What we know:
Elements: H1 2-10, H2 19-40, H3 45-62, H4 67-85, H5 90-111
Helix pairs in contact: 2-4, 2-5, 3-4, 4-5
Amino acid sequence: xxxxxxxxxxxxxxxxxxxxxxxxxxxxxxxxxxxxxxxxxxxxxxxxxxxxxxxxxxxxxxxxxxxxxxxxxxxxxxxxxxxxxxxxxxxxxxxxxxxxxxxxxxxxxxxxxxxxx
Length: 117
């Protein structure tokens, strides 16, 4: 298990040209990493946020992560974490819009349709 987590840490990815891998990744950032822990322990939200930001900083500094990828990951994480914490399911719809936009962008990137400048 620890080896798997370590491998995830060492391999940040924005999943360029891979729309479904991106969708799965961001869905998990939102629900498995953001929403589930907050659902199980709402008072832990500050700890989860600090831990997640540390994770992203490690990826950025030591493993050639991209600032934009880390920000996008954090946005998905935080949107669902707050939706659960604040009992605001409408925020989950917002995350789905972010998710759809990211998936579409990667399809356009894959097919070369986002070079319209």
